[in-house]
């Protein structure tokens, strides 16, 4: 085996506008109601969104259950000082991992003891992780695994996604020489988390380590693609340590691809950067790859010098594996020089070192497996209990959350349906009200149409010509009062019964004055009716009286009578209009064409619209009494 790919690990650390709008009182009330309903609908919407976001954040672990488990005295000055000390030791140990992994383990062990003493769980987790890194650099896989498992357990309890991803990366590094598929699996798990939490440093490291696996599989295009992705992030973060390792490994890949010049360029860049930073493992790896290039080019002197430089750095990191790789390179150099005696000497040394490594690993495995098995069994039992408890809590939480969401969604849908229906109803009300206003204006015009005015003027002229000035003045005075009253009631949608009585008296007295021998009238009302308080739609009854006079009484030769009576039954005002004219059926027979009174048509349209706005409807019952005469019954809800 030749070449080296060092482990890649993380450093971890008013323009104000004013408008004045005149709004009718009825529309102002509707506008206020609309604003209030919109406010409530928005409030429900934001509550619903907040519930969904909190539920998702809690159950996906974006919001950790607890970031720090602290002891009862965690607010004391001693605890605060010791926790700062633990963090400082962990940072120091991790920083020197490439230069002196043995010292990394010593410092991390010291941090671990102190963290356990003060029950500082984040410190315990990080100390285990850093110790695992140190053991991995010394190729002590069992001890590295032990510390990684401990760190992973604590970080999962803390809900620390970033460090969970870092452990996946570290475990992937343990498999990178023995099981490429497992290594890629752990790197991909870490990469997903790193991207999810938007951690660029973690993401770059995962890309880098994935690239190393692809290079070992001879998939160089995929390897360089992942290397370049990581390099872009390293430059952005100004991570010179990682850049040095990048140059070392890409130089190794270019060498294997046969691009010697590119390989040399990158390896020299790696050596230059690593020297400035004191990265001895990286320097050893660069010199090892460079030595193989010189050996391949038969530049034996340069190769020997390169091996000498590399071995100096290998001795500083106390790496038996790296030292053995240089010994193997010496063997291949002397073999190519045909110095077989020296070559045999180096080969024997390589076998000796391999035996030492094998014995060391076997011894470590025996000690580790016997002690670690029992420990792992206890840990698994505890984790099983914790997992079952978390499952029950999560299931209960999901059921409650789902119930709340369904309830809120139901409320939201019902409110939305209600607001839409109300909006539609208000729009219809406005349209109906506008149409009613239009019909009222038309009814006003019909009641005071030019023919009526013209006939009144003719009546006045007739009395003047007859020199009956008293009668002329009486007609003129009555017409003036009728016109004034007409203008008063036309601006209101409703009027009191008293106002209606006055208006009907003025109208009927005017017609009586014009046709004294042709008609008589009576207006009466029940004494229990509060004529000042009860209101009815304006301009509703007069058209029926006009119809009774002109189509019932006027066609008679001898004239007739018309009466209006107001009565109160329960909550309804009953208006009964009776005439002894020719009758509605006979009146229709006399008409040459099927004439429809314009005033009556407007009244019926208006009543239909009012009935759509109100819960209780206005009804009109019209019938002929016997062979002649007509009775009209108008029922108005109060």
UniProtKB/TrEMBL annotation:
SUPFAM superfamilies: ATPase domain of HSP90 chaperone/DNA topoisomerase II/histidine kinase (SSF55874), TPR-like (SSF48452)
Entry's transmembrane regions: 39-63, 398-420
Record-linked Pfam families: His_kinase, TPR_12
Alphabetized UniProt keyword annotations: Membrane, Transmembrane, Transmembrane helix
A molecular-function term among this protein's GO annotations: phosphorelay sensor kinase activity
Gene Ontology CC: one annotated term: membrane
Domain (Signal transduction histidine kinase internal region): residue spans on this chain: 440-518
PANTHER family: SENSOR HISTIDINE KINASE YPDA (PTHR34220)
Name assigned to this protein: Tetratricopeptide repeat-containing protein
């Amino acid at each position: 085996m030749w070449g080296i790919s060092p482990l890649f690990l993380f450093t971890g650390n008013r323009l104000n506008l004013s408008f004045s709008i005149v709004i009718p009182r009825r529309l102002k009330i509707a506008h206020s109601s609309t604003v209030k309903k919109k406010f409530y609908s928005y409030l429900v919407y934001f509550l619903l969104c907040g519930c969904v976001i909190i539920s998702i954040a809690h159950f996906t672990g974006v919001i950790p259950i607890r970031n720090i488990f602290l002891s009862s005295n965690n607010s004391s000055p001693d605890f605060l000082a010791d926790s700062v000390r633990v963090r400082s030791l962990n940072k120091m140990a991790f920083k020197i991992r490439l230069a002196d992994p043995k010292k990394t383990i010593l410092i991390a062990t010291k941090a671990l003891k102190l963290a356990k003493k003060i029950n500082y769980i984040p410190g315990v987790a990080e100390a285990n992780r850093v110790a695992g890194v140190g053991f991995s650099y010394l190729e002590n896989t069992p001890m590295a695994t032990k510390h990684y498992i401990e760190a992973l357990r604590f970080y999962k309890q803390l809900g620390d996604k970033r460090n969970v991803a870092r452990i996946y990366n570290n475990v992937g590094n343990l498999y990178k020489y023995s099981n490429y598929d497992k290594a890629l699996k752990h790197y991909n798990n870490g990469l997903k988390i790193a991207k999810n939490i938007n951690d660029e440093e973690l993401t770059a490291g995962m890309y880098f380590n994935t690239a190393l696996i692809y290079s070992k599989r001879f998939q160089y295009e995929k390897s360089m693609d992942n290397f370049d992705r990581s390099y872009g992030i390293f430059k952005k973060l100004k991570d010179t340590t990682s850049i040095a390792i990048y140059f070392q490994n890409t130089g190794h890949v270019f060498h294997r691809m046969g691009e010697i010049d590119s390989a040399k360029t990158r390896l020299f860049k790696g050596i230059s950067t690593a020297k400035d930073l004191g990265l001895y493992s990286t320097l050893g790896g660069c010199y090892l790859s460079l030595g193989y290039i010189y050996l391949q080019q038969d530049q034996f002197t340069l190769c020997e010098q390169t091996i000498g430089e590399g071995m100096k750095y290998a001795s500083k990191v106390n790496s038996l594996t790296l030292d053995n790789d240089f010994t193997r390179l010496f063997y291949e150099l002397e073999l190519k020089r045909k110095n077989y005696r020296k070559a045999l000497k180096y080969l024997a040394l390589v076998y000796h070192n391999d035996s030492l490594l094998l014995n060391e690993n076997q011894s470590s495995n025996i000690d580790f497996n016997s002690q670690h098995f029992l420990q792992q069994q206890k840990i698994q039992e505890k984790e099983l209990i914790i997992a079952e408890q978390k499952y029950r809590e999560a299931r209960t939480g999901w059921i409650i959350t789902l119930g709340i969401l369904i309830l809120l969604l139901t409320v939201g849908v019902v409110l939305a349906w209600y607001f839409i229906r109300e909006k539609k109803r208000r729009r219809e009300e406005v349209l109906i009200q506008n149409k009613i206003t239009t019909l009222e204006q038309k009814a006003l015009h019909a009641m005071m149409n030019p023919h009526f005015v013209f006939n009144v003027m003719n009546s006045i002229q007739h009395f003047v010509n007859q020199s009956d000035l008293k009668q002329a003045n009486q007609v003129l005075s009555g017409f003036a009062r009728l016109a004034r009253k007409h203008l008063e009631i036309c601006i209101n949608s409703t009027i009191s019964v008293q106002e209606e009585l006055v208006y009907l008296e003025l109208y009927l007295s005017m017609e009586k004055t014009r046709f004294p021998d042709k008609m008589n009238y009576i207006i009466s009302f029940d004494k229990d009716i509060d004529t000042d308080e009860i209101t009815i739609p304006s301009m509703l009854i007069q058209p029926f009286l006009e119809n009774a006079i002109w189509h019932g009484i006027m066609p008679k030769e001898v004239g007739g009578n018309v009466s209006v009576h107001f009565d109160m039954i329960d909550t309804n005002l009953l208006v009964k209009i009776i005439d002894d004219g020719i009758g509605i059926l006979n009146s229709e027979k006399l008409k040459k064409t099927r004439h429809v009174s314009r005033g009556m048509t407007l009244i019926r349209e208006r009543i239909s619209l009012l009935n759509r706005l109100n819960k209780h409807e206005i009804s009109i019952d019209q019938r002929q009494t016997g062979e002649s005469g007509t009775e009209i019954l108008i029922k108005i809800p109060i």
